[in-house]
């Protein structure tokens, strides 16, 4: 029996890994929609290879190139923000949300609005929208399957368990490429060093987030919404080997952990096959070769991002969306060499301090908070 799938952010790192698994099981899937921001050439190539029904570039100025690259096929080409949401509203058995940033929120909400099953990699959308998204999931009978490795691990550890019985959910963090760096070294860190993650091969934005630890901060808020045990039962531990992807401790003292190689195809496969299992080409875990697993408490002096995220989660309302938007602006500015590495968290902290906005009640409210926070964060780049 074939299942249908749409992938938003098909040309990125998660998109690549997802399509690699689909390619290995070609007969089991029918591809409905694939999207990219602009990379029309790559998107068209994938759409042709997988026989997609529709290919969408969210940047409308790239539509002409996409049309050209798809000429002679009967694959529909579309462009722009509305086209992206329209494509997400088309029925598919599984929708992979793999766009980076809050830009993925509207299409994800469109898939939720049709009651779809969404494999969520795009953590920024859930962080920004919070209850607006989880309420929509409940209202439309949609399902979120966590694709982020930590949340996928927790999801697996919770199977057969009750949230009421959970004492702790522990998110593991690699600590990123700068885990052992001094404050002075962090000040001088370059974009090239920041994107060179020791364990994972990922897109540029999430790589910088891993280096600042904001990735773990965002994941903390993501976990709060996916697994409602309360913020006081969520904690973060640094585990440099990235072998344990997260853990759940129950009230009887049993801790369940999910282990695996640092390859996103493992959590992606878990969502593609859910509730069954499928093969992946990943090397089996060789614990004897790995030798040791180590753990450290996070250092929030050098890496304040997890504290900022915790404070934003505690404050609730618009704060998580402000945290996320200002971080997106600051990370882009750092990648563009406009600000230093340590200024990223400083800009997020100041934006959160200076901006108080009403709690968003709808998708449009979230997008308005996101837009306002971006304006404020951009003003800070000038004075940074
Ligand atoms: P990436 O930069 O490699 O790919 C991003 C994708 O989104 C591309 O297809 C790109 O064309 C598209 N895109 C970029 N900007 C867009 C915009 N403004 N509008 C519409 N589409 C846009 O990123 P990635 O590493 O694949 O990460 C994707 C998401 O998955 C992020 O939210 C990230 O946090 C999350 N995630 C990634 C990994 C990983 O290993 N890469 C792991 C866990 C979670
Ligand atoms: Mg993760």
Can you describe what's shown?
The structure is a single chain. The protein has 384 residues and is α/β, with parallel strands linked by helices. The mean pLDDT is 97. Helix 16 packs antiparallel against helix 17 and helix 16 (319-335) packs across helix 18. The chain contains 18 helices and eleven strands. The longest helix is centred in the last third of the chain and has 21 residues, at 363-383. Helices cover 47% and strands 15% of the residues. The chain is globular. Strands 4-3-2-1-5-6-7 form a seven-stranded parallel sheet, with helices on both faces. Strands 9-8-10-11 form a four-stranded mixed sheet, covered by helices on one side. Bound molecules: nicotinamide-adenine-dinucleotide (NAD) and magnesium ion. The site of nicotinamide-adenine-dinucleotide has 26 residues, from helix 1, helix 6 and helix 11.
- If strands are numbered along the chain, what order do they take across the biggest sheet? 4-3-2-1-5-6-7
Which percent range describes the beta-strand content? 15-25%
Integer average pLDDT: 97
How many H/I helical runs? 18
In terms of structural class, how would the helical and strand content be classed? alpha/beta
Shape: globular
User: How many strand segments?
Assistant: 11
Taking the alpha carbons of the first and last residues, their distance comes to 56 Å
Bound small molecules, deduplicated:
nicotinamide-adenine-dinucleotide, magnesium ion
Major sheet: 7 strands, parallel
**Poorly predicted sequence stretches spanning 5 or more consecutive residues:** none
Q: What is the N-to-C order of secondary-structure elements (H for helix, E for strand)?
A: EHEHEHEHEHEHHEHEHHHHEEEHHHHHH
Rg, alpha carbons: 20 Å
Percentage of helical residues? Answer: 40-55%
């Amino acid at each position: 029996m074939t299942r249908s799938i749409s992938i938003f952010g098909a040309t990125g790192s998660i998109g690549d890994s997802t399509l690699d698994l689909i390619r290995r099981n070609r007969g089991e899937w029918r591809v409905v929609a694939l999207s990219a921001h602009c990379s029309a050439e790559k998107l068209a190539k994938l759409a042709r290879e997988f026989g997609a029904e529709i290919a969408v570039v969210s940047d409308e100025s790239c539509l002409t190139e996409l049309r050209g690259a798809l000429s002679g096929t009967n694959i529909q080409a579309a462009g722009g923000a509305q086209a992206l949401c329209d494509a997400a509203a088309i029925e598919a058995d599984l929708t992979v949300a793999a766009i980076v940033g809050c830009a993925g929120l509207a299409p994800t909400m469109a898939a939720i609005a049709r009651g779809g099953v969404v494999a969520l990699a795009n953590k920024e959308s859930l962080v920004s929208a919070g209850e607006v998204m989880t309420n929509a999931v409940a209202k439309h009978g949609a399902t979120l399957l966590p694709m982020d490795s930590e949340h996928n691990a927790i999801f697996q550890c919770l199977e057969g368990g009750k949230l009421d019985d959970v004492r702790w959910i522990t998110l593991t963090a690699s600590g990123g490429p700068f885990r052992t760096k001094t404050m002075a070294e962090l000040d001088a860190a370059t974009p090239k060093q920041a994107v060179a993650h020791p364990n994972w091969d990922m897109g540029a934005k999430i790589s910088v987030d891993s280096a600042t630890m904001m990735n773990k901060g965002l994941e903390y808020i993501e976990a709060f919404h996916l697994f409602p045990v309360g913020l006081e039962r969520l904690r973060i531990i640094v585990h440099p080997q990235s072998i344990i992807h997260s853990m759940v401790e129950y009230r009887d003292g049993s801790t369940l952990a999910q282990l695996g190689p640092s390859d996103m195809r493992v959590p992606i496969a878990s969502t593609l096959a859910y509730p069954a299992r499928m093969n992946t080409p990943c090397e089996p875990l060789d614990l004897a070769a790995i030798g040791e697993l180590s753990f450290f408490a996070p250092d929030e002096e050098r890496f304040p991002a997890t504290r900022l995220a915790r404070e934003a989660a505690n404050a609730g309302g618009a704060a998580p969306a402000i945290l996320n938007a200002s971080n997106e602006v600051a990370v882009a500015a750092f990648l563009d060499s406009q600000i230093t590495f340590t200024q990223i968290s400083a800009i997020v902290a100041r934006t959160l301090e200076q901006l108080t906005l009403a709690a968003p009640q709808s998708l449009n409210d979230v997008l308005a908070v996101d837009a306002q926070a971006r304006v404020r964060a951009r003003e800070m780049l000038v004075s940074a």
